[in-house]
Amino acid sequence: MAQRDYYEILGVARDAEADAIKKAYRKLAMQFHPDKNPGDKEAEEKFKEAAGAYEILSDPQKRAQYDRFGHQAFSGGRGGGGGFQDVDDIFSHFGDIFGDFFGGGGQQRARQQNGPRRGSDLRYVTEVTLKDVISGLEKEIEFDTDENCGECKGTGAEKGTHPDTCPMCNGSGQVVRQQGFFAMASTCPTCHGKGQVVKNPCKSCKGKGRKAQHKKIRLNIPPGVDTGTRLRVATEGEGGYMGGPPGDLYVEIRVKPHNNFERRGEDLFAELSVPYVQMLLGAEIEVPTVTGKAKLEIPKGAHPGDNIKLAHEGLPSLRGSRRGDIYFHVNVQFPDKLHKDEEKALREIAKARGLDVKGEGSLFGRKK
Q1: Which of 97, 162, 190, 266 has its CB surrounded by the most CB atoms within 10 Å?
Q2: The CATH fold of domain 6-94
Q3: Would you identify the CATH topology of the domain 262-334?
Q4: How far apart are CA 50 and CA 6, in angstroms?
């Protein structure tokens, strides 16, 4: 996808003065600020896009390169928000200049970081067979995650002590310097944005407040799942922060390909070779299914390429009691060589129908 023009992103003319560019960026950043649009991914992307444009146009040298070469001048570098990993990267680069509008800016962000927070959701991918899709199964899965340290309850401080407010940033997590009306902030180098410092680190987690955990859980996979089905296992994700609730675990299903059957929804499709005599006269033959064998009725006079249905031997529906069917695409099967009595009978049929056929020994014969 082509990158948008930086001047267009900020809504300024190409000859705009530096102050006009600052003003335009400030307006957009206030509009799409994450604190004003919590959970809005589209607003977050626009916030990053505006920051990427401002980074280039606010720097005279970079702006001159952009005016001459366009986006090619910065291929592989920052641009269009692509150089910023997340909004915190933007705040550390430019600073949170909107504290008055969003309830304290950096200090609020530090409080959120050090207060109770929900753990992240986790994603796990597991494979099942087509037979498992029919019956469902219980499966044990293992994975690694993080949780609060039980000794320090996530504070990172030794039991009986507590973290102190960072003296460098006074708990905001950022150090701010003023440049005219534009406040430039960066992550506090002392507390690394946490707003707190730990003088006596917890021995169990070495001051991190978190510990790795290896988890094993039993997962019930219902009948009817398909590749891409996601199962939610509540509270089995990453552990919460500072007493916050854990996240959820999302298990994504992958169904292994089957050697004989192709899946289309709840129905299955397979190839089946049927002797020519049974195709002509009809028959009941034994055919394979996913779980065993079943009887399939071949109608009299079946044609090669017909799809013959075996009802209710397909896959169950994930959302109901319906079960699909198996469709066998029939191909006619001829013998490599006819027995004499079989050849004789066919010649009599050909004669009765007035058909001209080759001499004896040539019918269905194959050179070895």
Answers
A1: 97
A2: Helix Hairpins (1.10.287)
A3: HSP40/DNAj peptide-binding domain (2.60.260)
A4: 8
